[in-house]
Amino acid sequence: MKNAKNYTFSTFAFAFGLACALGAAVPADAQAPAAAAKPAAAKPAAKKAAPVAAKAKLPPGIVWRGDRATERAFVADLAKQYELSKLGKVTMQPFSTISGIDAVNDGTADVAGSARPAMPGRAEETNLTFYPVAWEAMVPITSPKNPADSVTLKQLYDIYSGQLKSWKDLGGADEPINLYAIAAPLDGVDYVLRKYIYNKGDQPVWAGRQYMNTAKLEEGVTIDPHGLGFTTLSSVWGNKSIKILKVEGIAASTATVKDGSYPLYAPLYLAAKKDSKNFEATEKFINYASSDAGKAIIRKHQLVPIDDAPALMTELEKNSAWVSERVAGRGEPRPVSAPIATADYLIRTQPNSVEAQEAKARAAEVMAQKKAAKGTDKP
């Protein structure tokens, strides 16, 4: 047995050595003890995290508050593009003319939207600066179902004072005129109308239906075939549920506003307080409105940028005097000085522009109509 054991061990040793020599796999339980494990290679030092870039400082934001007329006319779109251009944030608070002006005065808003200039003698408006931005037309509106087409300035005077009460007098049906107005005091649109007609922006008028803003007034007129109210051209020019009446036979349009032949035109304003803490950011927004980008937005909404019709500002007082004459039943059928002045200015300063050629054509049309009315070829 001893020899058998030795044989067995020798045989195993021989087989083991042969296997190792030939590179054969050796069962794990037959392998020699493994050499001591080598220490794991040191991990490369972690890279230091790059310093986090400081968050870009956003331009200071502003708060706009004001009437629905200027909001819908151009401010809403202007504010949107201003933000998309990363110039600053504009918080919109549309409500009414007075709320906007008073908020800027007391510091709870930075800029106000207003369809009228400052009210003389009103303390809350004394320290504000009103910046004219765009020319707008104040237009009488009714339902498309109403057959009336035009209204004179004298008729408007009589309607708002309660003396003229039937559409029959305006070429419509023998039905009562349901007059719509804005309840809020010193609203921009109504202020302009009353200032033109009565030479007093806060003149009391006869109106049985009153609304908080022009948006609600328009909604009322659309469902009332006998309704009559005033709003802005930019608010309703594409609204098929609204009929815009001519004034003195002249349809409101950017062309008739630009040349001053449509009589009830007026600037839209942005109002701010120069000594406010946030005036620098506010002024930046106001300046954006008069930039090329701002003017493109204004034109898109059927408005005329202030700079596109510089002659209108000097003609405002003359136009008001002409309206007063017409209200009294006197004066020529339409003003002609504004179209001619606009054409003269543009031909001198921008002779090759499209605006100059349009103004020139408009002035020629006005002069031809004036000659025809007089029945002579003399100017």
How would you sum up this structure, described in words?
By secondary structure, this protein is of the alpha/beta class. It has a domain at 62-134 and 267-309: D-Maltodextrin-Binding Protein, domain 2, CATH 3.40.190. Helices cover 42% and strands 15% of the residues. The chain has helices spanning 2-22, 68-84, 97-106, 123-126, 153-160, 188-198, 214-222, 233-236, 254-258, 279-289, 292-300, 310-327, 337-349, 354-374, and strands at residues 62-66, 90-94, 111-114, 129-142, 150-151, 178-182, 209-211, 227-232, 243-244, 246-247, 265-272, 304-305. Strands 1, 2, 3, 4, 6, 7, 8, 9, 11 and 12 form a ten-stranded mixed beta sheet that branches. Strands 5-10 form a two-stranded parallel sheet. Helix 6 links the parallel strand 6 and strand 7 (209-211). Helix 13 packs antiparallel against helix 14 (354-374).
By helix and strand content, what is the structural category? alpha/beta
CATH topology of the domain at 62-134 and 267-309: D-Maltodextrin-Binding Protein, domain 2
- Helix and strand run: HEHEHEHEEHEHEHEHEEHEHHEHHH
- Overall mean pLDDT stands at 84
β-strand amount: 15-25%
Helix content: 40-55%
Oligomer: single chain
Low-confidence stretches: 1-37
- Helix count, per DSSP? 14
Question: How many individual β-strands?
Answer: 12
Distance between the termini: 150 Å
Name given to the CATH architecture of the domain at 62-134 and 267-309: 3-Layer(aba) Sandwich
What is the assigned CATH homologous superfamily of the domain at 62-134 and 267-309?
Periplasmic binding protein-like II
